[in-house]
Amino acid sequence: MRPRVPGTRKSSAAAPSRNTKAARKTGRRHPLATVALLAIGLGLTGGAYAAFTTTTASADTPQAQTATSSSVAQGEKLFQANCATCHGMDAQGTVNAPSLIGVGAAAVDFQVGTGRMPMQMQGPQAQEKPVQFSNEEVAALADYVASLAPGPSIPEQKYLDGKGNAANGAELFRINCAMCHNVAGAGGALTEGKYAPPLTGVSAKHIYEAMITGPQNMPVFNDLNISPQGKADIITYLKYIQNNPSPGGFELGSLGPVAEGLFLWIFGLGAIVALTVWITAKSN
């Protein structure tokens, strides 16, 4: 047996301890740990954002439109023949017109289905005019644009039947729409030659599509602003006031106190002046 050297065990035990401390000191955090943490954080943030935007997009597109390849091909031909001059061959926009990537089928159905597109002439906003395409061609154009990128789709029929809550629709309309369209939906003037069009005679589908796409100067009311049922209630309210006459008599264009005051000044005072002239003539 080899003789024990005094202090050998102590020194050998102390050495690993010093090595362990050194390892702990130098290996407390790996140099790539910060990068890994940043990558994990960005991944979680991106995933949460993607989930949120997907939920919002699906809420704004209540009906997933299934387009056939033939309909998309027909729409592409129509687009290149009638729309590409302004919007570009790939619908990515030009200096004269915006991009249509991501506007969805609802925007095309509204703009083309109301005759606003193709535009008759350049101006502050597109004018409504007779529709230039058949219903099948409008649907084909909508299918083609919808195939380019996800966007708001044509609403489901259950939101367009006019069987919602008219009272709730009236409240939502007064809060969100009346400042431009008038409380009775009669329309009104805006700035720089623009205007909010009257809503009488507009189909329920186009009213809904306008709310989810925001044409011209109109803001977009997604489902986080106004729920699909809320939009249906607004449509119900508009159809109610359209189908029921004014309880006060003459509507005078439903333009409010300005039109009513003008009516009184012209006809009321005019009648008083005419009566005064008639009395004076009789007394002479």
TrEMBL record:
GO CC field: plasma membrane
EC number: 7.1.1.8
Chain sites annotated for binding heme c 1: C83, C86, H87
Residue span of region Disordered: 1-29
Residues that span the membrane, as ranges: 262-281
Catalytic reaction annotation: a quinol + 2 Fe(III)-[cytochrome c](out) = a quinone + 2 Fe(II)-[cytochrome c](out) + 2 H(+)(out)
Lipid bilayer topology: Multi-pass membrane protein
Keyword Transmembrane helix recorded: yes
InterPro entries: bc1_cytC-su, Cyt_c-like_dom, Cyt_c-like_dom_sf, Cytochrome_c_Oxidase_Subunit
Residues at which heme c 2 binds: C177, C180, H181
Keywords noted in UniProt: Cell membrane, Electron transport, Heme, Iron, Membrane, Metal-binding, Repeat, Respiratory chain, Translocase, Transmembrane, Transmembrane helix, Transport
Top-level taxon: Bacteria
GO molecular function, one term: heme binding
PTM per Swiss-Prot/TrEMBL: Binds 2 heme c groups covalently per subunit.
Occurrences of domain Cytochrome c (ranges): 70-149, 164-242
Subcellular location: Cell membrane
Keyword Repeat annotated: yes
Chief place of localization: membrane
Subunit structure of this chain's protein: The cytochrome bc1 complex is composed of a cytochrome b (QcrB), the Rieske iron-sulfur protein (QcrA) and a diheme cytochrome c (QcrC) subunit.
Official protein name in the record: Cytochrome bc1 complex cytochrome c subunit
